[in-house]
Amino acid sequence: MAAMTGLSQLFPSLPLAPGGLFWVGLALVGAGLAGEICRAWLRLPRIIGYAAAGLAAGTLGRGILDENMLAQTHVLIDMALALALFELGHRLSITWLRANRWLLFTSAFESLLTWGLVAAVLQWMGVVPAVAILAGGIAVSTSPTIVLQLKNELRAEGQVTERLLALAALNSIYAAIIVQLATGWLHSEYGNLGAALLHPLYLLVGSCALAWGVGKAGHAIYARMSSDDHYSFLVLVGLVLFALALTQVLKLSMPLTLMLAGVVFKHQDRQPHVWPAHFGSAGSLLIIVMVVSLGLPLTAHDWAVGGAAAVVLVVLRHAAKLAGVVTLGSFSGLSLKQCMALGLALGPMSGLAFLLMSAVARLYPDTGEPLAAIILCTLAIEQLLAPALAALGLRFAGEVRGGNSHGHGNGGAH
């Protein structure tokens, strides 16, 4: 047996050098405490505390964070987002949209208004057209993760909440399509006409085909399991993560695939079935990690490059969504008060915006760098501001069944 070379193998070396896991764990402990301070003392949604902890960790730990650690957080962001998109797709009722077409018109109108207004004003401010158009498309999105987290934490139920979930799902689809079409235009701007035509077509057709296959296969497996089996949700989680991996291997659109897979999965049954109670719990920790992680990459340089544009984007985005819903929302059966509440609640932005921005940045760094600066600054503002406005909107509509003190953010576990 070989002898040990020295005591250094048995005892820690000084000075202590904790690895990335130590700092991630510390950030999560800080996020949990910040979330409870928001809930108990400030009467705000916990998710604001998580975002604040992520921004603080990113600022204070700038020397510790490296590219490898940031790249690893992308995996967690993808996983949290995949679970939320699939769940939101499962909650979207095509039958309801057919019966209430004004809801679809309202969604399309507020999305087009948001895109057009943001893109036009950013260009007027001097932002490059490609970056302005892409930023406008990303601004259309409403965060599925934060919307679901708020619904569960506040135990919100009612017409405004149901429309919020539907519009968040539709906005996610619109944003993904707009960014894909804008990326196709970027291909032509960079001189690649073949990619300009074929890439968006491949993404749209391929994502729809994969979503159909995943939804069908997932339902065939899930339908054979006991409906009251507490472990059957593991099949769904595994299915979603498998679909996520396939979108990366095939280079398809993750938002479109997972959202549409949820829709296909739901509509295999004539009778709607209850969403698995533990599915939200499975994604709850991932959502916290995601929100914390989104604050880590932000630097002072990003604020210098994109800070002013981000502030304008946030103001225009909220104004456009509120105006769009107030203009047409009454035709879908909402009162003016409910329209205002829904317009306020559509504000959250999070992982989906980051994912769409990252996809562009990987393809075209020259366009992606200024776009990333604007979107990262926008997320820093929106993750602190938008959940508070959304919670205010749901309370204004009278749909919050229990205060923050009663919710624990654990999916459908209530």
TrEMBL record:
List the InterPro entries.
Cation/H_exchanger_TM, Na+/solute_symporter_sf
Could you list the residue ranges that cross the membrane? 20-42, 47-65, 71-90, 102-125, 131-152, 164-187, 193-212, 233-254, 274-296, 303-320, 340-364, 371-394
Identify its membrane topology class. Multi-pass membrane protein
The entry's localization annotation reads: Membrane
Main location group: membrane
Q: Gene3D superfamilies, alphabetically? A: 1.20.1530.20
Q: Which residues form the Cation/H+ exchanger transmembrane domain?
A: 39-384
Q: Name one Pfam family in it.
A: Na_H_Exchanger
Q: Does the keyword Transmembrane apply?
A: yes
UniProt KW keywords: Membrane, Transmembrane, Transmembrane helix
**PANTHER family from the UniProt entry:** CATION_H+ EXCHANGER DOMAIN-CONTAINING PROTEIN, NA(+)/H(+) ANTIPORTER-RELATED
This chain belongs to the protein called: Sodium:proton exchanger
